[in-house]
Input
Amino acid sequence: MSSRGQQIGSAAPVCVSCRDCALKPICLPAHLPGEEARALEAAVERGRQVLPGVTLVRAGEPMAALLVVRSGSAKRYSVTLEGTEQVHGFVLPGEAVGLEGFASGRYTCEVSALEPLSYCRVPMRKLEQLLERLPGLRREILRLLGQALDEAQRLRGELAQSDARGRVAHFLADLSERLARRGLSPTEFRLSMSRADIARHLGLTLETVSRALSTFKREGWLRVRARDISVLRPEALAALGGGCA
Amino acid sequence: MSSRGQQIGSAAPVCVSCRDCALKPICLPAHLPGEEARALEAAVERGRQVLPGVTLVRAGEPMAALLVVRSGSAKRYSVTLEGTEQVHGFVLPGEAVGLEGFASGRYTCEVSALEPLSYCRVPMRKLEQLLERLPGLRREILRLLGQALDEAQRLRGELAQSDARGRVAHFLADLSERLARRGLSPTEFRLSMSRADIARHLGLTLETVSRALSTFKREGWLRVRARDISVLRPEALAALGGGCA
DNA sequence: CGTTCATTTGAGCCGACTCAAAATGGGTGG
DNA sequence: CCACCCATTTTGAGTCGGCTCAAATGAACG
Output
């Protein structure tokens, strides 16, 4: 297991202050003035770790804390009446989990680890106290929610307008960009999710996802070996998947 | 124009306090304690009116205020690089507009009136001041954003999983339910949007939307006359469109 | 009453799904 | 280290739903 070493986000030491965290430029405190960042930092519970497959939050459960992934990746999904999974998206380091819980104080979807994963926690009690006196944090949390909303809408638009290849291309381009923002390679990465997960996320079947990848491979846009992806022509993917003004 | 009289939400008198507003049980102040509601009310600019087709907010424009529709309905959309509209959804009375603007302080999509429409406005300056001292309002705004996010995700799931008839059924069931919550008839209503708008919202063509409606009519679930809809078997629509736990 | 736009209906085609089988790779135990 | 086993992924053949293009009908407005 230690030889894989390809998991998303470095295997960070368990306890690090935000100041020394590799995610500093991306994570919540990034846009906060110094004192606010310090106040927030004091409320953060760090270094929780879980194994692949473990569920971080469950639908219906009260939202007791704001969770932010530190390393590893996770799958956000909900289960339909018929028992099938709807995959809403994938969570990368520095991203918050379960924001839609603000709606009712309870989570409405499940989030489970795809790899060994570590995360930070801000208990809601403390968060609310902090929101009382930190205007920057207020703005930051609103920004976070607004961003999530914007992203969800953008994604919906993608589903509505693109065909299978377009969706897969967009998925790869988006993932690539998010990895780059975390200082990881945008062209060489290992998918932590299965074809079936990708398919359920994009509203396709796993065969169709596989075929799309094969097409890209044949066209010379990608190298694909199981879950290892090398992007050879990012522009081509972006052109197919892009589409938004 | 006055003889149509079918527009969504009554033609409210221009200036009404929140206390006397027909939307009181749905709108923002509904969940606020008395003093907070009063404080918010003092910041609200009421009774702005626009004609059909007028754009309320434009993509790229700074988010200068929080807008809530009072009467009438609107279309949220964005324009892709190719010049086609992506319809994100439709706004009913009591619903806020442009929440995704919290992401960057600028709107990312356009909202334009589908009927004569009136709305209320809370300037962002004042809103931020209020958020400083009203914990209930803080929670309420977060709830609003969380709800919008949850809804966007649910919709994405619907797109990913349902076929054409399922999407149209879900659209009607959702609209019906939202109208009911506003004290309007859930079974008799007039669509304020075109088939093309519905189609672009659901990721279909207008012909397919029309065919789905015709099918429902043939099965005896609906009566359809142009944009006037009578729902005869709500359960049937809900069964087709539902699907989420 | 005529014009114009929105909606409905029809025919044919293409892409994505379904079902089925082969191949690949990762992990395990000898 | 190698052979085996299992799950995942790839590939193939055939079907069906939704798209495209085109025409007809219906509604709204001057």
Remarks:
- Confidence is low (pLDDT under 50) at residues 1-5 of chain A.
